[in-house]
């Protein structure tokens, strides 16, 4: 039987994640028949290369998705809100990187190492989680399976690139200005379009996204509810308690997280047992040898697909409680690679098709 090949579109192809979607797709197991690169009108006409072939970026319109089997989207929430339903209406399955569809009850929120089974029964749109959530659940899932999970408290150390290429560029410019004794200019962080902006170079910003009425930022809200949806199938699940603080740090690429977690009692959880579970888990690399100063670092994780875990240790004040340090490339596992990985599973499971009537679930 002839192997099926797929017509694929990348929406938001010229951004930091979009270009990485191309490179991850090049290295994937997906048999590509054709690739269409889509972006805004200002990026239309740019030339990008895929598998040695020069492709021209086109302006995205609703009809761009005619004849497309699979869309890898990284164009932002408003773009996905507009175009994902149009793609589904034309028979394409969409794997979306934006936050727009993540909490929609008709859309599975997927990290393949944790819940690839949720791809079954999709309605044409699959959501890719927040980058900081993704690496956390990859590290927590083998622990949950072995010892249960009652509580999670996370503090993040998130790279500038998590806010986009412009934030990354601004960090570089601020560093150069500071080193030259010049004033650092801030126009983007902590939130583009907000009243105040602060430099990230030589600084820490305890705000990622806007503040909610309860004092948590929307990034923190996302980590709480996305974790519950991915691991327990319900964004408001009471099966685990999750809270956190998200901080932007002057690192170009690679998010770090300190995670405190409580296992179920009477499961015999130990640091050694947790390390064993992590060492055997898909997508995880254990780097944990304090005597040799071996632990994950963003500079070493950049360009890699895996999630790196180290500094696993017991909490000395609370039973069945532990700490660990987790690092991953936020542009790869946190975005582009997780998206392509989902697409690989869709192909593997023969799920690259839109069920009859599914498009109606996303009509305004």
From TrEMBL:
<dbReference type="InterPro" id="IPR005986">
    <property type="entry name" value="Asp_semialdehyde_DH_beta"/>
</dbReference>
<keyword id="KW-0486">Methionine biosynthesis</keyword>
<feature type="binding site">
    <location>
        <position position="248"/>
    </location>
    <ligand>
        <name>substrate</name>
    </ligand>
</feature>
<feature type="binding site">
    <location>
        <position position="158"/>
    </location>
    <ligand>
        <name>substrate</name>
    </ligand>
</feature>
<dbReference type="Pfam" id="PF01118">
    <property type="entry name" value="Semialdhyde_dh"/>
</dbReference>
<feature type="binding site">
    <location>
        <begin position="14"/>
        <end position="17"/>
    </location>
    <ligand>
        <name>NADP(+)</name>
    </ligand>
</feature>
<comment type="similarity">
    <text>Belongs to the aspartate-semialdehyde dehydrogenase family.</text>
</comment>
<keyword id="KW-0791">Threonine biosynthesis</keyword>
<dbReference type="InterPro" id="IPR012280">
    <property type="entry name" value="Semialdhyde_DH_dimer_dom"/>
</dbReference>
<comment type="function">
    <text>Catalyzes the NADPH-dependent formation of L-aspartate-semialdehyde (L-ASA) by the reductive dephosphorylation of L-aspartyl-4-phosphate.</text>
</comment>
<comment type="pathway">
    <text>Amino-acid biosynthesis; L-threonine biosynthesis; L-threonine from L-aspartate: step 2/5.</text>
</comment>
<dbReference type="InterPro" id="IPR000534">
    <property type="entry name" value="Semialdehyde_DH_NAD-bd"/>
</dbReference>
<feature type="binding site">
    <location>
        <position position="330"/>
    </location>
    <ligand>
        <name>NADP(+)</name>
    </ligand>
</feature>
<comment type="pathway">
    <text>Amino-acid biosynthesis; L-methionine biosynthesis via de novo pathway; L-homoserine from L-aspartate: step 2/3.</text>
</comment>
<dbReference type="InterPro" id="IPR036291">
    <property type="entry name" value="NAD(P)-bd_dom_sf"/>
</dbReference>
<protein>
    <recommendedName>
        <fullName>Aspartate-semialdehyde dehydrogenase</fullName>
        <ecNumber>1.2.1.11</ecNumber>
    </recommendedName>
</protein>
<keyword id="KW-0560">Oxidoreductase</keyword>
<feature type="binding site">
    <location>
        <position position="102"/>
    </location>
    <ligand>
        <name>phosphate</name>
    </ligand>
</feature>
<keyword id="KW-0457">Lysine biosynthesis</keyword>
<feature type="binding site">
    <location>
        <begin position="42"/>
        <end position="43"/>
    </location>
    <ligand>
        <name>NADP(+)</name>
    </ligand>
</feature>
<feature type="active site" description="Proton acceptor">
    <location>
        <position position="255"/>
    </location>
</feature>
<dbReference type="Pfam" id="PF02774">
    <property type="entry name" value="Semialdhyde_dhC"/>
</dbReference>
<feature type="domain" description="Semialdehyde dehydrogenase NAD-binding">
    <location>
        <begin position="7"/>
        <end position="122"/>
    </location>
</feature>
<dbReference type="InterPro" id="IPR012080">
    <property type="entry name" value="Asp_semialdehyde_DH"/>
</dbReference>
<keyword id="KW-0521">NADP</keyword>
<keyword id="KW-0028">Amino-acid biosynthesis</keyword>
<keyword id="KW-0220">Diaminopimelate biosynthesis</keyword>
<feature type="active site" description="Acyl-thioester intermediate">
    <location>
        <position position="131"/>
    </location>
</feature>
<feature type="binding site">
    <location>
        <begin position="161"/>
        <end position="162"/>
    </location>
    <ligand>
        <name>NADP(+)</name>
    </ligand>
</feature>
<dbReference type="GO" id="GO:0004073">
    <property type="term" value="F:aspartate-semialdehyde dehydrogenase activity"/>
</dbReference>
<comment type="subunit">
    <text>Homodimer.</text>
</comment>
